[in-house]
Design goal:
Keywords: Heme, Iron, Metal-binding, Oxidoreductase. The chain has ten helices and 20 strands. By secondary structure, the protein is α+β, with helices and mostly antiparallel strands. The chain has four domains: about 100 residues, Flavocytochrome B2, Chain A, domain 1; about 90 residues, Immunoglobulin-like (Sandwich); about 100 residues, Beta Barrel (Elongation Factor Tu (Ef-tu), domain 3); about 55 residues, no CATH class. A hairpin with a 3-residue loop joins strand 7 and strand 8. Bound molecules: flavin-adenine dinucleotide and protoporphyrin IX containing FE (HEM). The site of protoporphyrin IX containing FE (HEM) has 22 residues, from helix 3, helix 4 and helix 5.
Length: about 375
Amino acid sequence: NTKVPLQRGRSLMDWIRLSKSGVDLRGTGSKPLQISMEELKKHDKPNDAWIAIRGYVFNITRYIEYHPGGESELMRGAGKDATSLFEEVHRWVNFESMLKSTFIGTLIQELPSRTIKKTPSSLTVPVGNLARTSNMISQFRNVLQLFQTDFRQNEDTICLHVDIVSITSNLSYTINLLHQVENTISVEKNQSIEIILKKSKRGLNWDNFGFLMQNRSFQTKFRPCTLVSKSNVTHDTLLLHFRFPDSTHMIPPIGAHVFFQTNVDGVVIRRPYTVAMPSITDGGYKIDSKNFYAVIKVYSTGALSNVFVNLNPGSEIPVGTYEMKFHLEMISSFKQVFMLAAGTGFTPMIRILHHCLFKTDKKVKLGLFNKQQRDILWKNDFETL
Ligand SMILES: Cc1cc2nc3c(=O)[nH]c(=O)nc-3n(C[C@H](O)[C@H](O)[C@H](O)COP(=O)(O)OP(=O)(O)OC[C@H]3O[C@@H](n4cnc5c(N)ncnc54)[C@H](O)[C@@H]3O)c2cc1C
Ligand code: HEM
Protein backbone atom coordinates (compact mmCIF):
# COMPACT_ATOMS: atom_id res chain seq x y z
CA ASN A 1 0.00 0.00 0.00
CA THR A 2 1.26 3.45 -0.85
CA LYS A 3 0.02 6.97 -0.63
CA VAL A 4 -0.60 8.89 -3.83
CA PRO A 5 0.20 12.59 -4.30
CA LEU A 6 -2.79 14.72 -3.39
CA GLN A 7 -3.59 17.99 -5.15
CA ARG A 8 -2.81 21.23 -3.32
CA GLY A 9 -5.60 22.22 -0.98
CA ARG A 10 -6.63 18.62 -0.43
CA SER A 11 -5.00 17.89 2.92
CA LEU A 12 -6.85 16.52 5.91
CA MET A 13 -7.09 20.04 7.35
CA ASP A 14 -8.72 21.18 4.09
CA TRP A 15 -11.19 18.31 4.34
CA ILE A 16 -12.05 19.27 7.92
CA ARG A 17 -12.62 22.85 6.75
CA LEU A 18 -14.90 21.68 3.92
CA SER A 19 -16.87 19.37 6.15
CA LYS A 20 -17.44 22.16 8.67
CA SER A 21 -18.32 24.72 5.99
CA GLY A 22 -22.00 23.85 5.83
CA VAL A 23 -21.76 22.65 2.18
CA ASP A 24 -24.17 19.75 1.64
CA LEU A 25 -21.95 16.69 1.26
CA ARG A 26 -24.75 14.14 1.61
CA GLY A 27 -27.03 14.98 -1.27
CA THR A 28 -29.85 13.06 0.41
CA GLY A 29 -31.13 15.53 2.98
CA SER A 30 -30.33 15.44 6.67
CA LYS A 31 -32.69 12.63 7.71
CA PRO A 32 -30.77 9.31 8.02
CA LEU A 33 -31.98 6.74 5.50
CA GLN A 34 -32.24 2.96 5.61
CA ILE A 35 -30.24 1.83 2.60
CA SER A 36 -30.55 -1.52 0.89
CA MET A 37 -27.64 -3.32 -0.74
CA GLU A 38 -29.42 -2.87 -4.06
CA GLU A 39 -29.52 0.91 -3.61
CA LEU A 40 -25.92 1.06 -2.39
CA LYS A 41 -24.69 -0.78 -5.49
CA LYS A 42 -26.02 1.99 -7.75
CA HIS A 43 -23.61 4.53 -6.25
CA ASP A 44 -20.29 3.17 -7.46
CA LYS A 45 -19.03 5.95 -9.74
CA PRO A 46 -16.55 8.72 -8.91
CA ASN A 47 -19.24 11.37 -9.45
CA ASP A 48 -21.72 9.45 -7.29
CA ALA A 49 -19.98 7.24 -4.75
CA TRP A 50 -21.40 5.77 -1.58
CA ILE A 51 -19.61 3.41 0.77
CA ALA A 52 -20.79 1.27 3.68
CA ILE A 53 -18.47 0.63 6.62
CA ARG A 54 -19.58 -1.22 9.76
CA GLY A 55 -23.22 -0.67 8.86
CA TYR A 56 -22.95 3.08 8.19
CA VAL A 57 -23.34 4.51 4.70
CA PHE A 58 -21.46 7.64 3.58
CA ASN A 59 -21.46 9.70 0.41
CA ILE A 60 -17.73 9.79 -0.38
CA THR A 61 -18.02 11.63 -3.71
CA ARG A 62 -16.42 14.82 -2.40
CA TYR A 63 -13.94 12.98 -0.15
CA ILE A 64 -12.31 11.14 -3.09
CA GLU A 65 -9.91 14.01 -3.85
CA TYR A 66 -8.85 14.13 -0.21
CA HIS A 67 -8.22 10.43 0.26
CA PRO A 68 -4.48 9.93 0.99
CA GLY A 69 -4.61 6.45 -0.55
CA GLY A 70 -5.94 7.87 -3.84
CA GLU A 71 -9.08 7.62 -5.92
CA SER A 72 -8.63 4.14 -7.33
CA GLU A 73 -8.05 2.64 -3.90
CA LEU A 74 -11.05 4.35 -2.36
CA MET A 75 -13.23 3.45 -5.35
CA ARG A 76 -12.58 -0.23 -4.64
CA GLY A 77 -15.04 0.22 -1.80
CA ALA A 78 -17.60 2.36 -3.65
CA GLY A 79 -21.12 0.94 -3.93
CA LYS A 80 -20.18 -1.83 -1.52
CA ASP A 81 -20.11 -2.92 2.06
CA ALA A 82 -16.40 -2.16 2.31
CA THR A 83 -15.97 -3.07 5.98
CA SER A 84 -13.44 -5.88 5.44
CA LEU A 85 -11.51 -3.93 2.83
CA PHE A 86 -11.34 -0.88 5.11
CA GLU A 87 -10.19 -2.96 8.06
CA GLU A 88 -7.61 -4.73 5.97
CA VAL A 89 -6.02 -1.43 4.94
CA HIS A 90 -6.34 0.94 7.90
CA ARG A 91 -8.81 -0.08 10.53
CA TRP A 92 -7.49 2.61 12.90
CA VAL A 93 -8.70 5.46 10.64
CA ASN A 94 -11.51 7.24 12.42
CA PHE A 95 -13.92 7.30 9.49
CA GLU A 96 -17.03 7.89 11.65
CA SER A 97 -15.72 11.24 12.76
CA MET A 98 -13.96 12.19 9.51
CA LEU A 99 -16.98 11.39 7.33
CA LYS A 100 -19.67 12.59 9.74
CA SER A 101 -20.83 15.35 7.41
CA THR A 102 -21.29 12.82 4.59
CA PHE A 103 -23.29 10.30 6.64
CA ILE A 104 -26.43 9.22 4.75
CA GLY A 105 -27.87 6.40 6.82
CA THR A 106 -27.56 2.77 7.80
CA LEU A 107 -27.22 -0.31 5.66
CA ILE A 108 -30.03 -2.84 5.85
CA GLN A 109 -28.08 -5.89 6.99
CA GLU A 110 -28.36 -9.07 4.98
CA LEU A 111 -27.27 -12.42 6.37
CA PRO A 112 -23.71 -13.13 5.25
CA SER A 113 -23.21 -16.23 3.16
CA ARG A 114 -20.73 -18.60 4.78
CA THR A 115 -17.54 -19.32 2.95
CA ILE A 116 -15.30 -22.15 4.00
CA LYS A 117 -11.64 -22.09 3.16
CA LYS A 118 -10.30 -25.44 2.01
CA THR A 119 -6.80 -25.05 3.41
CA PRO A 120 -6.78 -22.17 5.85
CA SER A 121 -3.45 -20.63 6.71
CA SER A 122 -5.03 -18.38 9.27
CA LEU A 123 -7.62 -19.03 11.87
CA THR A 124 -9.86 -16.72 13.83
CA VAL A 125 -10.53 -17.76 17.39
CA PRO A 126 -13.83 -16.33 18.64
CA VAL A 127 -12.68 -15.92 22.20
CA GLY A 128 -15.79 -13.97 23.15
CA ASN A 129 -18.04 -16.90 22.25
CA LEU A 130 -15.90 -19.42 24.04
CA ALA A 131 -15.76 -17.22 27.08
CA ARG A 132 -19.50 -16.89 27.27
CA THR A 133 -19.68 -20.59 28.13
CA SER A 134 -17.30 -20.27 31.04
CA ASN A 135 -18.34 -18.72 34.33
CA MET A 136 -14.82 -18.34 35.48
CA ILE A 137 -13.85 -16.30 32.48
CA SER A 138 -17.05 -14.35 32.10
CA GLN A 139 -16.55 -12.78 35.52
CA PHE A 140 -13.67 -10.92 33.96
CA ARG A 141 -15.44 -9.77 30.83
CA ASN A 142 -15.11 -6.11 29.98
CA VAL A 143 -11.96 -5.85 32.03
CA LEU A 144 -8.55 -6.27 30.50
CA GLN A 145 -7.13 -8.56 27.93
CA LEU A 146 -4.16 -10.75 28.51
CA PHE A 147 -3.44 -13.66 26.31
CA GLN A 148 -0.82 -16.36 26.40
CA THR A 149 -0.45 -18.93 23.71
CA ASP A 150 1.73 -21.98 23.61
CA PHE A 151 1.72 -25.09 21.47
CA ARG A 152 2.66 -28.74 21.28
CA GLN A 153 2.74 -31.01 18.27
CA ASN A 154 2.96 -34.58 17.07
CA GLU A 155 3.32 -36.01 13.57
CA ASP A 156 -0.28 -35.20 12.69
CA THR A 157 -1.46 -32.32 14.78
CA ILE A 158 -0.67 -28.94 16.24
CA CYS A 159 -2.33 -28.16 19.53
CA LEU A 160 -2.54 -24.52 20.57
CA HIS A 161 -3.10 -23.71 24.25
CA VAL A 162 -4.73 -20.39 24.82
CA ASP A 163 -4.66 -19.05 28.36
CA ILE A 164 -7.04 -16.24 29.02
CA VAL A 165 -6.47 -14.34 32.19
CA SER A 166 -9.18 -11.85 31.50
CA ILE A 167 -10.82 -10.62 28.37
CA THR A 168 -13.00 -7.99 26.79
CA SER A 169 -16.34 -9.25 25.51
CA ASN A 170 -16.63 -10.16 21.83
CA LEU A 171 -12.91 -10.11 21.43
CA SER A 172 -11.51 -12.16 18.62
CA TYR A 173 -7.90 -12.93 17.84
CA THR A 174 -6.43 -14.13 14.60
CA ILE A 175 -3.57 -16.58 14.62
CA ASN A 176 -1.46 -16.46 11.50
CA LEU A 177 -0.24 -20.02 11.34
CA LEU A 178 3.30 -20.81 10.28
CA HIS A 179 2.27 -23.64 7.94
CA GLN A 180 -0.90 -24.90 6.29
CA VAL A 181 -3.45 -26.97 8.17
CA GLU A 182 -6.49 -28.98 7.15
CA ASN A 183 -9.96 -27.63 7.59
CA THR A 184 -10.66 -29.82 10.61
CA ILE A 185 -10.49 -27.84 13.79
CA SER A 186 -11.49 -29.06 17.21
CA VAL A 187 -11.63 -26.98 20.34
CA GLU A 188 -11.44 -28.29 23.90
CA LYS A 189 -11.75 -26.33 27.07
CA ASN A 190 -10.00 -27.49 30.24
CA GLN A 191 -7.76 -25.22 32.28
CA SER A 192 -6.94 -23.43 29.08
CA ILE A 193 -8.58 -23.53 25.67
CA GLU A 194 -7.00 -26.04 23.33
CA ILE A 195 -7.35 -25.73 19.58
CA ILE A 196 -6.33 -28.84 17.70
CA LEU A 197 -5.40 -28.53 14.05
CA LYS A 198 -4.42 -31.18 11.55
CA LYS A 199 -1.16 -30.51 9.74
CA SER A 200 -1.50 -30.41 5.96
CA LYS A 201 1.98 -31.85 5.70
CA ARG A 202 2.20 -34.80 8.05
CA GLY A 203 5.49 -35.09 9.90
CA LEU A 204 6.55 -31.50 9.23
CA ASN A 205 8.17 -30.11 12.36
CA TRP A 206 6.85 -26.62 13.16
CA ASP A 207 9.39 -24.30 14.83
CA ASN A 208 6.55 -22.26 16.30
CA PHE A 209 2.84 -21.91 15.69
CA GLY A 210 3.01 -18.53 13.92
CA PHE A 211 1.87 -15.14 15.15
CA LEU A 212 -0.98 -14.03 17.28
CA MET A 213 -2.62 -11.02 15.68
CA GLN A 214 -4.96 -8.65 17.39
CA ASN A 215 -8.64 -8.57 16.54
CA ARG A 216 -9.36 -6.67 13.36
CA SER A 217 -11.90 -4.11 14.41
CA PHE A 218 -10.36 -1.20 16.24
CA GLN A 219 -11.03 -1.31 19.97
CA THR A 220 -7.91 0.26 21.35
CA LYS A 221 -8.09 1.84 24.77
CA PHE A 222 -6.68 5.36 24.83
CA ARG A 223 -4.73 6.48 27.89
CA PRO A 224 -3.54 10.00 28.69
CA CYS A 225 0.26 9.92 28.40
CA THR A 226 2.44 12.75 29.63
CA LEU A 227 5.05 14.40 27.47
CA VAL A 228 8.26 14.33 29.53
CA SER A 229 10.60 16.06 27.12
CA LYS A 230 10.90 17.19 23.54
CA SER A 231 13.94 17.92 21.38
CA ASN A 232 14.79 18.25 17.69
CA VAL A 233 16.34 15.37 15.75
CA THR A 234 16.40 17.44 12.54
CA HIS A 235 15.00 20.82 11.47
CA ASP A 236 11.47 19.35 11.14
CA THR A 237 11.56 16.16 13.20
CA LEU A 238 11.03 15.86 16.93
CA LEU A 239 12.15 13.32 19.49
CA LEU A 240 9.39 13.02 22.07
CA HIS A 241 9.64 11.22 25.39
CA PHE A 242 6.29 10.12 26.88
CA ARG A 243 5.32 8.53 30.15
CA PHE A 244 2.37 6.18 30.60
CA PRO A 245 -0.11 7.02 33.36
CA ASP A 246 0.59 5.50 36.80
CA SER A 247 -1.80 2.60 36.28
CA THR A 248 -0.28 1.53 32.96
CA HIS A 249 2.75 -0.61 32.33
CA MET A 250 3.42 -1.45 28.73
CA ILE A 251 6.48 -2.63 26.83
CA PRO A 252 5.78 -2.26 23.12
CA PRO A 253 7.92 -4.86 21.33
CA ILE A 254 10.37 -3.98 18.57
CA GLY A 255 8.37 -3.10 15.46
CA ALA A 256 5.31 -1.90 17.38
CA HIS A 257 3.51 1.38 16.85
CA VAL A 258 1.13 3.20 19.16
CA PHE A 259 -1.76 5.45 18.16
CA PHE A 260 -1.93 9.11 19.07
CA GLN A 261 -5.29 10.79 18.97
CA THR A 262 -6.40 14.38 18.86
CA ASN A 263 -9.48 16.43 18.16
CA VAL A 264 -9.27 19.00 15.37
CA ASP A 265 -12.35 21.21 15.21
CA GLY A 266 -14.50 18.40 16.57
CA VAL A 267 -13.06 15.76 14.21
CA VAL A 268 -11.20 12.95 15.93
CA ILE A 269 -7.87 12.23 14.22
CA ARG A 270 -5.91 9.13 15.00
CA ARG A 271 -2.51 8.23 13.58
CA PRO A 272 0.02 5.46 14.14
CA TYR A 273 3.57 6.30 15.28
CA THR A 274 6.38 3.82 15.75
CA VAL A 275 7.80 3.33 19.22
CA ALA A 276 11.38 4.53 18.79
CA MET A 277 14.28 5.14 21.17
CA PRO A 278 16.28 8.18 22.30
CA SER A 279 19.51 7.31 20.50
CA ILE A 280 20.84 4.72 18.08
CA THR A 281 24.35 4.76 19.52
CA ASP A 282 23.48 3.92 23.14
CA GLY A 283 24.04 0.15 23.23
CA GLY A 284 22.87 0.03 26.85
CA TYR A 285 19.41 1.48 26.18
CA LYS A 286 16.63 -0.83 27.31
CA ILE A 287 12.96 0.03 27.02
CA ASP A 288 11.05 0.04 30.32
CA SER A 289 7.36 -0.30 31.03
CA LYS A 290 6.69 3.34 31.92
CA ASN A 291 8.39 5.35 29.18
CA PHE A 292 8.44 5.38 25.43
CA TYR A 293 9.88 7.57 22.68
CA ALA A 294 8.58 8.67 19.30
CA VAL A 295 10.39 10.36 16.41
CA ILE A 296 7.84 12.50 14.61
CA LYS A 297 8.16 14.63 11.50
CA VAL A 298 6.09 17.81 11.59
CA TYR A 299 4.26 18.71 8.36
CA SER A 300 3.38 22.38 8.05
CA THR A 301 -0.27 21.55 7.38
CA GLY A 302 -0.25 18.22 9.21
CA ALA A 303 -3.39 17.68 11.25
CA LEU A 304 -1.82 15.53 13.97
CA SER A 305 1.93 16.05 13.65
CA ASN A 306 1.42 19.77 14.32
CA VAL A 307 -0.15 19.00 17.66
CA PHE A 308 3.29 17.97 18.92
CA VAL A 309 4.72 21.40 18.13
CA ASN A 310 2.40 22.98 20.68
CA LEU A 311 2.47 20.13 23.18
CA ASN A 312 4.65 21.15 26.11
CA PRO A 313 6.37 18.93 28.67
CA GLY A 314 3.89 18.08 31.41
CA SER A 315 0.92 18.07 28.97
CA GLU A 316 -1.02 14.93 28.15
CA ILE A 317 -2.16 13.32 24.91
CA PRO A 318 -4.29 10.17 24.44
CA VAL A 319 -2.24 7.17 23.33
CA GLY A 320 -3.75 3.87 22.20
CA THR A 321 -2.40 0.39 22.87
CA TYR A 322 0.40 -0.72 20.60
CA GLU A 323 -0.01 -2.91 17.55
CA MET A 324 2.48 -4.49 15.21
CA LYS A 325 2.86 -6.06 11.82
CA PHE A 326 6.56 -6.80 12.10
CA HIS A 327 7.77 -9.48 14.50
CA LEU A 328 11.43 -9.95 15.37
CA GLU A 329 11.09 -13.69 14.67
CA MET A 330 10.70 -12.77 11.02
CA ILE A 331 14.42 -12.00 10.82
CA SER A 332 15.68 -14.35 13.52
CA SER A 333 17.16 -16.83 11.07
CA PHE A 334 18.94 -14.23 8.93
CA LYS A 335 22.65 -13.55 9.36
CA GLN A 336 22.49 -10.34 7.34
CA VAL A 337 19.80 -7.69 7.39
CA PHE A 338 19.43 -5.08 4.65
CA MET A 339 17.00 -2.25 5.30
CA LEU A 340 15.81 0.47 2.95
CA ALA A 341 14.12 3.58 4.27
CA ALA A 342 13.03 6.97 3.02
CA GLY A 343 12.72 9.95 5.39
CA THR A 344 10.80 9.17 8.56
CA GLY A 345 10.08 5.76 7.04
CA PHE A 346 13.26 4.97 8.96
CA THR A 347 11.47 5.14 12.33
CA PRO A 348 10.28 1.50 12.32
CA MET A 349 13.87 0.44 11.71
CA ILE A 350 15.44 2.33 14.62
CA ARG A 351 14.86 -0.39 17.20
CA ILE A 352 15.51 -3.19 14.71
CA LEU A 353 18.85 -1.62 13.83
CA HIS A 354 19.73 -1.14 17.50
CA HIS A 355 18.76 -4.73 18.30
CA CYS A 356 20.80 -6.17 15.43
CA LEU A 357 23.86 -4.05 16.21
CA PHE A 358 23.96 -4.45 19.97
CA LYS A 359 22.13 -7.69 20.75
CA THR A 360 23.09 -9.98 17.87
CA ASP A 361 26.05 -10.63 15.60
CA LYS A 362 24.01 -9.98 12.48
CA LYS A 363 25.50 -7.83 9.75
CA VAL A 364 23.33 -4.83 9.02
CA LYS A 365 23.17 -2.59 5.98
CA LEU A 366 20.93 0.43 5.81
CA GLY A 367 20.03 2.41 2.69
CA LEU A 368 18.58 5.74 3.77
CA PHE A 369 16.94 8.07 1.26
CA ASN A 370 16.33 11.73 2.05
CA LYS A 371 15.50 14.85 0.08
CA GLN A 372 18.27 16.90 1.67
CA GLN A 373 21.30 16.19 3.87
CA ARG A 374 19.66 18.08 6.72
CA ASP A 375 16.71 15.67 6.68
CA ILE A 376 18.89 12.72 7.71
CA LEU A 377 17.83 11.57 11.15
CA TRP A 378 20.75 11.29 13.60
CA LYS A 379 23.26 12.04 10.86
CA ASN A 380 26.16 12.57 13.29
CA ASP A 381 25.34 9.45 15.27
CA PHE A 382 25.43 7.36 12.10
CA GLU A 383 28.89 8.64 11.36
CA THR A 384 30.16 7.44 14.74
CA LEU A 385 28.55 4.00 14.55
C1 LIG B 1 2.54 2.04 10.95
C2 LIG B 1 2.91 3.50 10.82
C3 LIG B 1 3.91 4.03 11.62
C4 LIG B 1 4.25 5.38 11.51
N1 LIG B 1 5.27 5.86 12.28
C5 LIG B 1 5.63 7.15 12.15
C6 LIG B 1 6.72 7.69 12.93
O1 LIG B 1 7.35 7.00 13.73
N2 LIG B 1 7.04 9.00 12.75
C7 LIG B 1 6.36 9.82 11.86
O2 LIG B 1 6.71 11.00 11.75
N3 LIG B 1 5.33 9.33 11.13
C8 LIG B 1 4.94 8.04 11.26
N4 LIG B 1 3.88 7.57 10.53
C9 LIG B 1 3.07 8.53 9.73
C10 LIG B 1 2.01 9.17 10.64
O3 LIG B 1 1.07 8.19 11.06
C11 LIG B 1 1.20 10.29 9.96
O4 LIG B 1 0.70 9.80 8.74
C12 LIG B 1 2.01 11.55 9.71
O5 LIG B 1 2.51 12.07 10.93
C13 LIG B 1 1.17 12.64 9.05
O6 LIG B 1 0.07 12.92 9.86
P1 LIG B 1 -0.59 14.36 9.94
O7 LIG B 1 -1.96 14.22 10.52
O8 LIG B 1 0.31 15.32 10.59
O9 LIG B 1 -0.63 14.75 8.42
P2 LIG B 1 -1.77 15.08 7.37
O10 LIG B 1 -2.62 16.17 7.85
O11 LIG B 1 -2.45 13.86 6.91
O12 LIG B 1 -0.84 15.56 6.18
C14 LIG B 1 0.51 15.95 6.35
C15 LIG B 1 1.01 16.66 5.13
O13 LIG B 1 1.16 15.74 4.09
C16 LIG B 1 0.37 16.12 3.01
N5 LIG B 1 -0.20 14.89 2.48
C17 LIG B 1 -0.88 13.94 3.16
N6 LIG B 1 -1.20 12.93 2.33
C18 LIG B 1 -0.68 13.27 1.15
C19 LIG B 1 -0.66 12.64 -0.10
N7 LIG B 1 -1.25 11.46 -0.29
N8 LIG B 1 -0.05 13.30 -1.11
C20 LIG B 1 0.56 14.49 -0.95
N9 LIG B 1 0.58 15.13 0.22
C21 LIG B 1 -0.04 14.52 1.23
C22 LIG B 1 -0.68 17.03 3.58
O14 LIG B 1 -1.13 17.93 2.60
C23 LIG B 1 0.08 17.73 4.66
O15 LIG B 1 0.88 18.77 4.17
C24 LIG B 1 3.55 6.22 10.60
C25 LIG B 1 2.54 5.69 9.80
C26 LIG B 1 2.23 4.34 9.89
C27 LIG B 1 1.15 3.79 9.00
C1 HEM C 1 -12.59 0.88 1.69
C2 HEM C 1 -11.86 1.32 0.73
C3 HEM C 1 -10.54 2.00 0.99
C4 HEM C 1 -9.33 1.60 0.54
C5 HEM C 1 -9.05 0.39 -0.35
C6 HEM C 1 -8.35 2.53 1.05
C7 HEM C 1 -7.00 2.47 0.79
C8 HEM C 1 -6.05 3.29 1.33
C9 HEM C 1 -4.64 3.19 1.11
C10 HEM C 1 -3.97 2.15 0.21
C11 HEM C 1 -4.02 4.13 1.84
C12 HEM C 1 -2.53 4.42 1.91
C13 HEM C 1 -1.98 3.65 3.11
C14 HEM C 1 -0.49 3.82 3.28
O1 HEM C 1 -0.02 4.95 3.39
O2 HEM C 1 0.19 2.80 3.34
C15 HEM C 1 -5.05 4.86 2.53
C16 HEM C 1 -4.80 5.88 3.42
C17 HEM C 1 -5.79 6.55 4.09
N1 HEM C 1 -7.16 6.38 3.94
FE1 HEM C 1 -8.08 4.95 2.87
N2 HEM C 1 -8.98 3.46 1.81
C18 HEM C 1 -10.32 3.18 1.81
C19 HEM C 1 -11.32 3.89 2.44
C20 HEM C 1 -11.11 5.00 3.22
C21 HEM C 1 -12.16 5.77 3.85
C22 HEM C 1 -13.65 5.50 3.73
C23 HEM C 1 -11.56 6.75 4.55
C24 HEM C 1 -12.32 7.77 5.32
C25 HEM C 1 -11.98 8.45 6.31
C26 HEM C 1 -10.12 6.62 4.38
C27 HEM C 1 -9.15 7.41 4.94
C28 HEM C 1 -7.79 7.26 4.79
C29 HEM C 1 -6.79 8.01 5.54
C30 HEM C 1 -7.06 9.08 6.59
C31 HEM C 1 -5.54 7.56 5.11
C32 HEM C 1 -4.17 8.00 5.63
C33 HEM C 1 -3.84 7.06 6.77
C34 HEM C 1 -2.57 7.40 7.52
O3 HEM C 1 -1.59 7.82 6.91
O4 HEM C 1 -2.56 7.20 8.77
N3 HEM C 1 -9.88 5.55 3.55
N4 HEM C 1 -6.27 4.33 2.20
